[in-house]
Amino acid sequence: MRNNHGGHDNIKESSEHMKRTYAMFQDVHVMIFIGFGFLMTFLKKYGLSAVSLNMLCSVLSIQWSILVQGFFHPHCEDPHIPWDDCPSSWGWVDINVMTLLNADFATAAVLISFGVVIGTTTPLQLLIMVFLEIVVFNINEYVGRGEIMTVDAGDTIFVHMFGAYFGLAASRVLYSKKHADSENAGANNISDLFSMIGTIFLWMFWPSFNAGAAAEGDAQARCVINTYLSLCACVMSAFALSSFLAPDRKFVMEHIQNATLAGGVAVGATADMVITPLGAIVIGFAAGLISTWGFHYATPFLSSKWKINDTCGVNNLHGMPSLLGGMLSVLLAGIANRDMLISLNEIFPMHPEKGSGWQAGVQMSGIVVTLLFAIVGGTITGFVMKKVGEVTRNNDTTVHHTHNGSMTTATVVKSKTAIPQELLYDDNAFFLVHQFEV
Amino acid sequence: MRNNHGGHDNIKESSEHMKRTYAMFQDVHVMIFIGFGFLMTFLKKYGLSAVSLNMLCSVLSIQWSILVQGFFHPHCEDPHIPWDDCPSSWGWVDINVMTLLNADFATAAVLISFGVVIGTTTPLQLLIMVFLEIVVFNINEYVGRGEIMTVDAGDTIFVHMFGAYFGLAASRVLYSKKHADSENAGANNISDLFSMIGTIFLWMFWPSFNAGAAAEGDAQARCVINTYLSLCACVMSAFALSSFLAPDRKFVMEHIQNATLAGGVAVGATADMVITPLGAIVIGFAAGLISTWGFHYATPFLSSKWKINDTCGVNNLHGMPSLLGGMLSVLLAGIANRDMLISLNEIFPMHPEKGSGWQAGVQMSGIVVTLLFAIVGGTITGFVMKKVGEVTRNNDTTVHHTHNGSMTTATVVKSKTAIPQELLYDDNAFFLVHQFEV
Amino acid sequence: MRNNHGGHDNIKESSEHMKRTYAMFQDVHVMIFIGFGFLMTFLKKYGLSAVSLNMLCSVLSIQWSILVQGFFHPHCEDPHIPWDDCPSSWGWVDINVMTLLNADFATAAVLISFGVVIGTTTPLQLLIMVFLEIVVFNINEYVGRGEIMTVDAGDTIFVHMFGAYFGLAASRVLYSKKHADSENAGANNISDLFSMIGTIFLWMFWPSFNAGAAAEGDAQARCVINTYLSLCACVMSAFALSSFLAPDRKFVMEHIQNATLAGGVAVGATADMVITPLGAIVIGFAAGLISTWGFHYATPFLSSKWKINDTCGVNNLHGMPSLLGGMLSVLLAGIANRDMLISLNEIFPMHPEKGSGWQAGVQMSGIVVTLLFAIVGGTITGFVMKKVGEVTRNNDTTVHHTHNGSMTTATVVKSKTAIPQELLYDDNAFFLVHQFEV
User: Fold this and answer.
1) Which residues make Cβ contacts (< 8 Å) with residue A193, sequence separation at least 6?
2) DSSP-assigned letters across all residues of A72-87
3) Which candidate, A155, A298, B161, B314, has a CA 20 to 30 Å from the CA of A351?
4) Which of A325, A324, A326, A330 has its CA nearest to residue A357?
C-alpha cells in the first residue's frame, strides 16, 4: 500500500479517486497484463503459455493481495472512524480504485519472480508461488514502508528488488542443468516482435507506475518527468552498449526488449525527489549500461557458476537496476539538508527533525530487510515448489499428445523434474496447441 | 443512449465531459477496434479480414448510429430549451463525448453479431447487417430503457444479449453445412497469440465499458470494482474448467480467449448495484464456468442440431452470460427493499414507490422485449443478407487470383453460397494477400 | 510548442496539468511508440528494425527537442517573472507535461521523415537526420506559429507537411535504383497483421493528437469530434476506392493500413474551427480518396519519374492530405466573417481587427514557409546523410554473419551504397536475428 494519504471514504472522494487515479490505474493495468504478458512471449515456443499463465497468476495475485493487504490495513465498518478508535475488533477491507492499483503493484512483484522461472515450472507450482509470495510481499512492505518508514515512490525496493531476488532464490532451489541446456529457450524474429509489444507498453506507461500513488501536484509531476527522462536515456545507453558488445556491432533484441526498461526501475525510489532532469538522465543512462552488461556477462555467469537459471534475465532488468536505485535513495536522503527534508515532508513524512543521516539509514535498512525477506522467502517457496513438482510428476507426465495440424503424436515420458526436458519452454506442456503451418 | 443525466449543452459541461468521460471513452474505443478486431484474428487464414472488416463495419456503425440515436433523442436548436418545449419541430443531433461513447456501445452490439457470421459472409452482406441492426438496436433500446425503464448499467441486456441473439438468428437463416465443415475455421499458435491481444485489451478495459455511462461518484466506482472482481474470478473458473474438460488436462486457447471475458458480460446489468465484492466474484466465477462449458458442449450442439454456425462462439461469450446477468438483475431488483430502492434512486430512477416487485417485472420485460427484437430482427436481416448473397454471387465468384509471393494462381469457381467453400474463412476471398514464406 | 496559454508554473497548475493533459499525452505517446513503430512493421523482413529504430530515433528526438524548444522559449529562474522582464539573461528550460507532449509532436515529424527512408539508411544516418531535423523543425515552428501566427491546432502544417516533405527531399538526395528494385520491400500476411496494430492505435488516438494542446472546453471538444468523424469517413472512402482500384475488386492492405488515417491529417489544421460534423465527414472522405489514389498512382510515379523512393508511402498519408488540410485552413480563415473571428479569438488569437482576408494570408504564408524550410532543410540533411553513408560504408560492410537457428553464414560484401543491396529492408543488416522456423 504505497499511499498514506489517510482514509478515503465518502462519495466525493470516491468520485475524486476516479478522476485522479483511474487513468493511471488503467496504464498500470496495461503494464501488468499486456506489458509483462507479451514481454515474455519472446520464447519461440512458449508465447501462448507466457501470456496466458501471466493472466492466470495475475488474477489470483490481485484477489489474494486485496485480502492480505486488507488484513494488514483493516478499516472500521464506519469508514470515518480510524481503525484504532473502532469500537469493534472486526476489520473491514476497504476497496476503492487505490486498492486496485496497489493490488496491481503487488502483482508486478509476483510477475517479476514469474519471469525467472517461466518455462521450467508447472501451473500448480506457479499458483503456489503466488500464494506464498503475496504474503511475504505484504509483510515486507508493512515492515519496510510502514514501520521502518523507507521512502520508495516507484516501488524500486518493495516491488522490483523484492520480486527479483525472491524469484532468483526460488530458481536456485529449483535448478536443473536441463533448464539451461534446453534448445527451446531461444527466440525467433516473430516471437521477438510479439515481445516488443510488451516492452513498449511497459516503457510508455512506466511514468504512471512510478507516479500512480505519489502525492498529488508537484511530487506526482516530478515522478512522471523524472521517469520519462530516465527511460529515454536508458534506451540510448542500452542500444549503444548492445551494439558494442555484440558480434559485427549489431543490436541484440534481448537487450532492446529488456535493458531499455531498466531506467524506470532505477529511478523509481527517487522519482519524486528533486533529482533534476540531468540527474534523471544520468540514472537512466547508467541503468541501461548495467542492464545490458548483465545480459551479456551476468546471466551466463549466474547460470554456470551460481546454478541460477534466469529465463527472462530478471536480475538484469529488475535486480541490479533496483540495487542501483535503492543505493541512490540512500545517497539522496543522506545529502539532503534539514530544510529540504522539511519542505519535502510530503515525501519524507517522518522524523524530519532527525536529519538526513537518519533518513539515509532508514533507506538502507529498508533495502537490507527487503533483501532478507526476498531471499529467505524465495528459498522456502522454492523448496515448497520443488516438493510439489516431485509429487505431481508421476500423475502429469505419463502420456503427452502433441497436436500438429490433424496429426496427433503420443509420447510416453519419464523424468525426474516436474516437466520433461523436451517440453521445457514448450506450449505443448500445458496448452492444447495447433502448430503454425505454411 | 445509456445516460439520462439531462442536457449537457454549454461550454462548462463540454469541458467537464472531456475531463470526466474522455479517458473512459478511449478505453471503450480500444475495446471496439483493438479488442474485438484482434480477438477475431484467431482464425489462421482470416486475420487481416477480421481486423479490417471489424474496422469497416465499426465506422459505418458509428456514423449511422449517431444519426439514428439523434432521431430518437432530438434536441432543440437552442440546446437550453428541452425538446418538448421547442418552438420548432425540426430536431438537431447533439454531438458530444457521450454521443461518441454511446455510438461505440451500439457498435459493440453490431460486432457481437459480426462475430457469429465472420468468415462466411461478404463485406456487402456485413454492411447491410450493420444498417439494419443499428435501427433495430435503437428501437429496442428506446423501448426497453426509455419506455419500460429497464436498468442495465453495463449494457448486458441491450448490447450483449441483443447482439448475440440478433447474430445467431441471422446465422440460422444463412446456415450452410459447408460453413461448419471448412478446414480453414481453425487456429494456429501465431493466430492464437494475435487473438490474445484482443482478449487482454477487452479484459482490461471492461470496467470502463460498464462504468463509462454510470452516474458519477459511488455508482461509477462500484461499476469499476464489481466488474474488475468479476473478471478476475472469471479467469480462474475458465482456466479450471478448461483444463478439466480438455484431453490431458491441458488448457484450451479458445476458452482462455473468450470465456475469461464472460464475467464482464454477466456482471454488467447489476454492476452499479450493491452486490458486494463477494457477489461480484461469485457472478464472475459462474459466468466463466457457463462460458467454458458452452464452448465445449453448446457450440457443437447448436451447429449439428439447431443448424446455427457460430464462428467465434458468441453464444458462449455474450449469449448465455448475458442471460445469467439479466436474470440476476431481475433477482436483485426483486429482493431490494423499498428504502434501498429510494436510496439507490440514481440507479432505479422511476417508480421507487411501486416497490421492488415492480422493478423486477420491469427488468424481466426488458429482457423479453430485447430477445424478441433480436430474434425477429436478426431473422429478417438474415433473409435480406441471404438474398443479397445470392444476387451478388454470380458477379463476384468467377475467377479468383491467389497471390503467393511472386506466383499468381487463377481459379474458376462456381458455387451456391455467397462465398465458395475453399475461400470460407480465407483472407484471399476479399483481400489481396501475400502469403508468409519461410 | 502548440499552446500559448501563458506560463504554467506553480503547484496548482502542475496538478491541473496532470489532470487535464496526462491522459491525452499518454494517448499521443502510444501513437509515437506503438503507432508509428508497428505501422512500419509491414516490411516482411524488417519488423524488428522498424519498431526498434523507431524507438531509438524517438528517444533521441524527445530529449533533443526539449533542449531546442527550451532554447526558443526560455524561462526566467523564478517562473512567475515573464522572460522579457527577467533580470538575468540566463534562460531556463521549463519542463512540465505540456513539454513532454510537445516533444512527442516534434518526434512525430521526425518519424514521418523516417518512414520515407526506412530500410535504406543506417542507424547512424538516421540519428544525424534526427539531430538536424529537430533544429529545422523548431525554427520553422517558431517562425510559422510564433511570428507569422499561422493557426494549426492538429499540426497538419507544422508536423505532417513539414515531416513529409523534409523526408521526401532527403530521400531524393539518397536515391538509388537498388532501393526501388529490392525484393525485400514487400509485406506478407503476418507482417501486415503486425502493421495493423500500429494503424489502429494511430487511428483511435488521433483525436487526442489533434486536441491535446487545444484550448480547454468547446474548442477541445470540437477537435475531438471533428477528428473522430473525419477518420470514420476516411475509412469508408479508403476501403471503397481500394477495392475499386485493385484487381478482382479486392481490398489492398497497404491502403487500409495508411489511407484510413489520412482524415486525421487533413482535418488537423481546422479541427478546432466550426466546420460542422458534415464538413468533417466531407474532409475525411476526400482525404481517404486522395491517399488511396496516391498509393496506386503517385508512389510509382515519384519513384520512376522523380527518383524519390518513399518506403512507407509518406507522401500519400502525410504529404498530400496535409496540403489539402492546409488549403482548407486558408479557405476557412478566408470565409470567416469578422464577428466570427472575434468570437473565435481563442483560436485566431491575433489581428481579429484585420479581418478574414488577413488571416487567410497568414495561413498561406505558414504553408509556403513550411514547405521551404522542409525542402531546403531536407535536401541539405540528405546530403549530410549521404556523405556519412559513404564514409562509414567501408567500415561496416566487410563481413556479414547471418544467423539462422544454429547455423551461421558469413558473406563478404562490397557495395557503393551505405547498405548492400541484399540487406536493404532486412533486419540482418543491423540486428542479430534468429529466423523463424516451422
Assistant:
1) C41, C47, C48, C51, C194
2) HS-B-SSTTS-GGG-S
3) A155
4) A330
Superfamily of domain B11-394: Ammonium transporter AmtB like domains (1.10.3430.10)
- Rounded Cα distance between A139 and A153, Å, is 18
Integer Cα distance of A117 and A129 in angstroms:
10
Q: Are A35 and A201 in contact (CB under 8 A)?
A: yes
Q: What is the pLDDT of residues A152-185, one digit of tens each?
A: 999 999 999 999 999 999 999 999 888 888 888 8
In this structure, what are the phi and psi dihedrals at residue B138, rounded to the nearest 5 degrees?
-70, -35
> Which of A26, A396, A436 is nearest residue B189 as measured by Cβ atoms?
A436
Grid coordinates standing for A93?
477491507
Residue of B nearest to A50 (CA): B193
CB-based contact C132:C113 (threshold 8 Å): no
With CA atoms as reference, report the closest residue to C59 among A31, A239, A196.
A239
Question: What sections of C273-406 are H helices per DSSP?
Answer: 276-293, 299-304, 314, 320-335, 338-343, 355-396
Report the number of secondary-structure helices (H) and strands (E) in chain B: 17, 4
Helix, coil or strand: residue C411: strand
Q: How far apart are CA B59 and CA B40, in angstroms?
A: 17
Chain A residues lying within 8 Å of C100, measured CB to CB = 224-225, 228
Output DSSP code: residue A432.
Answer: E
CA distance B311 to B257: 14
Round to whole Å and give the CA distance between C81 and C75: 8
Residues of chain C with pLDDT under 70: 1-13, 337-355, 393-417
Residues of B within 8 A of A38 (CB-CB) are: 197
Q: Which residue in A has a C-alpha nearest to residue B193's C-alpha?
A: A48
Buried b (16+ CB within 10 A) or exposed e, B186-210: bbbbbbbbbbbbbbbbbbbbbbbbb
Q: Cβ A63–B217 below 8 Å, yes or no?
A: no
Half-sphere exposure of A22 (CA within 13 A, CB side): 32
Q: Reduce the DSSP state of residue C93 to 3 states and report it.
A: coil
Q: How far apart are CA B2 and CA B272, in angstroms?
A: 13
Per DSSP, B248 falls in state G
Query: For C272, which DSSP code?
Result: T
Who's near B375: CB < 8 A, 6+ residues apart? Answer: B165, B166, B169
- B42: which 3 cell numbers? 484467431
Q: Contact at 8 Å (CB) between B152 and B322?
A: no
Model pTM above 0.90 = yes
Number of B:C CB contacts under 8 A? 130
The three three-digit cell numbers of residue C93, written as one number: 528550460
Interface with B, mutate which of A11, A14, A102 (most B CBs under 10 A): A14
Domain ranges of chain B: 11-394
Q: Do A220 and C436 touch (CB under 8 A)?
A: no
Q: Where are the beta strands (DSSP E) in C141-259?
A: 251-252
Q: What gap in Å lies between CA C86 and CA B153, rounded to an integer?
A: 55
How confident is the prediction for chain A on average, in pLDDT?
87
The Cα–Cα gap between B110 and B58 comes to 8
All three cell numbers of C176, joined, read 538509388
Cα B249 to Cα B239: distance, rounded to the nearest angstrom: 10
At B411, the amino acid letter reads T
Q: d(Cα A182, Cα A219) in Å, to the nearest integer?
A: 47
CB contact under 8 A, C253 and B194: no
Sign of CA dihedral C180, C182, C183, C185: negative
Q: How many CB atoms lie within 10 A of CB C374?
A: 27
